[in-house]
Amino acid sequence: MPLPAEPAAPARVVVLVSGSGTNLQALLDAVAERGPAYGAEVVAVGADRSGIEGLARAERAGLPTFVCRVRDYPTREAWDAALAEAVAEHRPDLVVSAGFMKIVGAAFLARFGGRFVNTHPALLPSFPGAHAVRDALAHGARVTGCTVHFVDAGVDSGPIIAQRAVEIRDTDDEAALHERIKDVERGLLVEVVGRLARDGYSIEGRKVFIP
């Protein structure tokens, strides 16, 4: 009688943060609630600044943390290489930007391109950049949303993994709309990371395929 197959080890995920870490917390909650069935585990959390709640969340969860501040390096390229090295020490299968407010460069993408997941508060390719919510309101859009995508060398231009729509209400200001988008974004990120980890994926041109 054949022995049962060994369950696959959870995918190793390094999360990068710059602020409060609510997306990080959503991932930590999913791992805690679903256990091995989720398919992924957070193995470390990195940041571009110290003293932030995102790092405190990681420390409370017993996770190793690291900080790579741009100002501590002579050039942006040196910072990028150091960040790549710090992430690589934890042998990640996936790297997740959970509100990480720095643009990575060539050294980082050379090591983690096709494995670096980001969220954006709009339905890309509409409204890329740092002011997506404000731009959608100014444009008079009736629907916006959030996108989970792989990071490439452009600004919010990498292959799209998943999207979810959010209606824009007549009473919305930027803060109210952004809060509703963030609520949806957290759920979508948790869903996407779990699916990538459990099912695997391929990238063909600009299309992402998950079995």
UniProtKB/TrEMBL annotation:
N(1)-(5-phospho-beta-D-ribosyl)glycinamide binds at G21, T22, N23. It holds the Pfam family Formyl_trans_N. InterPro entries: Formyl_transf_N, Formyl_transf_N_sf, GART, GART_AS. Keywords: Purine biosynthesis, Transferase. The keyword Cell membrane does not apply. It comes from the Bacteria. This is Phosphoribosylglycinamide formyltransferase.
